[in-house]
Amino acid sequence: MKEKKAKNVFVEGAISAEFIGNSIAKHQSKTTIGAHNIFLGQVRADQIDGKAITAIEYTAHQDMANEKFFEIREATFVKFNLTCMHIYHSLGAVNAGEICLFVFVSSPRRKEVFKALEFVVEEIKAKVPVFGKELFEDESHQWKVNS
């Protein structure tokens, strides 16, 4: 049996609507799927100390992060009855309003995709070494704290 290995989930810059749409379209021929669920993480233009965030610059320990993404993916398949799952995360600068995280889960049944998606996103936030530097309108910056 072929051993599964971690794939690179990182894309440079924002994740485009076209990329997301193409990912969804590829699943129309998979007739054993009855439900999909999608999470799109978007950069907010939060105000911190009177300054607006204009972008977040993402960095990661890519090998470690890809391994964690893989572990989360495998654990999710054990825990939930999924047909497939895709995870993509941005690296580099992503402007406010743009997508930085795309998680797409599919299953024969709808209840599984709701539970699985929440599990995956919470695990990513808690365990994956991806770091965001918030860039402000005055060109200052600070490291983002996950909430």
What's the short version?
Helices cover 31% and strands 37% of the residues. The protein has 147 residues and is of the alpha+beta class.
Describe this structure in words.
The protein contains three helices and eight strands; from the N terminus they run βαβββαββαββ. The chain is of the alpha+beta class. It has one domain: Aldehyde Oxidoreductase, domain 3, CATH 3.90.1170.40. Strands 1, 2, 3, 4, 5, 6, 7 and 8 form an eight-stranded mixed beta sheet that branches. Strand 3 and strand 4 (about 50-60) form a beta hairpin. Helix 2 packs antiparallel against helix 3. About 30% of the residues are buried.
Please outline the helices and strands.
Blueprint: E1 10-12, H1 17-25, E2 35-42, E3 47-48, E4 51-60, H2 62-79, E5 84-95, E6 99-107, H3 110-127, E7 130-136, E8 141-143
Parallel strand pairs: 1-5
Antiparallel strand pairs: 2-6, 3-4, 4-5, 4-7, 5-6, 7-8
What is the CATH architecture descriptor? Alpha-Beta Complex
Order of helices and strands: EHEEEHEEHEE
Percent of residues in helices comes to 25-40%
Question: What structural category do the secondary elements indicate?
Answer: alpha+beta
Oligomer: single chain
| Sheet with most strands | 8 strands, mixed
Please count the helical segments.
Answer: 3
Based on CA atoms alone, the radius of gyration comes out at 16 Å
Under CATH at level 1, the class stands as Alpha Beta
Main features:
single chain, 147 residues, alpha+beta, Aldehyde Oxidoreductase, domain 3, 8-stranded mixed beta sheet, 3 helices, globular
